[in-house]
TrEMBL record:
One Pfam match: GtrA_DPMS_TM
Source domain of life: Bacteria
Topology class, membrane: Multi-pass membrane protein
Taxonomic source organism: Anaeroplasma bactoclasticum
Protein name: Putative flippase GtrA
First and last residue of the signal peptide: none
Main location: membrane
Domain GtrA/DPMS transmembrane positions: 14-150
Lineage, highest ranks first: Bacteria, Bacillati, Mycoplasmatota, Mollicutes, Anaeroplasmatales
């Protein structure tokens, strides 16, 4: 089923709204973990923990709100482990990009060149890197979810128990 420009535009708007809410949850959890939970940890471990905590909170927020983005999602797709698995795998790729970007940018956060007019105190450069990575992952997620996770093909989503019953019936 092909979408017209208006439907596609509304879908993208809904994706941005849902993604914005999930991003706020992600950023809030990331901020809390970075400033309260991970302060005294080794840098590699701290970056992994605060990125993973924010990612996980954002992932579940996003999953539960996806039915508002892709209006053609069936109840079978919403309940399907296979669809959720594809959603998580695509999200893990986004997590990897975010974690790697945050890890590579970590030494720049305390660089003298980036410490201009008290910007260090508000962690501006940390958030600049986080926003840039969010935009990259947002584009990847929309395309990936549209093409691979919530595609509009009318294929039946089978439950594992249905597959086993079908195989027994064929014997």
């Amino acid at each position: 089923m092909k979408q017209n420009k208006k439907e596609l535009g509304l879908e993208i708007l809904r994706f941005l709204i849902v993604g914005g809410l999930a991003t706020l949850v992600d950023y809030a959890v990331t901020w809390a973990f970075k400033n309260f939970v991970c302060q005294n940890l080794e840098v590699n471990l701290a970056v992994f923990i605060y990125t993973a905590a924010g990612f996980t909170a954002g992932l579940f927020t996003n999953w539960f709100l996806q039915k508002f983005v892709y209006r053609y999602i069936t109840k079978d797709q919403q309940r399907s482990f296979y669809v959720f698995f594809k959603f998580v795998v695509l999200s893990l790729i986004g997590f990897g990009i975010t974690w790697l970007g945050m890890r590579l940018s970590e030494p720049l956060h305390d660089n003298v060149l980036f410490d201009f007019w008290f910007l260090h105190n508000i962690q501006l450069w940390f958030w600049v890197f986080k926003v840039v990575l969010t935009i990259i992952v947002l584009i990847m997620n929309y395309i990936g979810r549209k093409l691979f996770v919530f595609n509009q093909k009318k294929e039946k989503v089978k439950d594992t128990s249905e597959s086993i019953e079908d195989e027994k019936a064929e014997e």
